[in-house]
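Standup notes
- DV: blocked on the single-chain target, sequence here:
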Amino acid sequence: MKKLTVLLAVVLACGLAACDSSDPNSPAFKRKQAFKMVVRYAEPLGKVARGRDPYHADNFIEQTAELQRVADKPWEFFTPPQPGDTEKTRAKPEIWAQPQKFEQLRKDFIVAVDGVAAAAQTRDFDQVRPAVEKLEKTCMACHKAFRAE
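- DV (later): unblocked, structure below
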């Protein structure tokens, strides 16, 4: 009985692994990975701006530099779905129907990232907080328009 249980567990684990249809070469997969990097650097900035984490100017400047480095990475992977694509995505169809609006929101995001970096250079928390809030608003505007929940 114990051998049967172990065998079933192994078969189930292998079956679940086979169900993972992520294609690491698909644009959607690459886009998700790029956004994970953006979040990795943006999220701590938001925590500082909201007072959840302490403000250390040097660390904040480093984080914003990293955010600037990765902020433009996801956008090249926004391509219309192709027949046979298996990667799940939360991008709404409107993203392909309204490319000018999407491009403007992308530009707003990049400008806001640069604004956070400029505010960080002042080392003044009172300038950092509104810059981060503006950045977060650009994220939310794009998500509201083009990201399914």
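- Follow-up: The helical segments are 2-19, 27-49, 57-70, 94-97, 99-122, 125-146.
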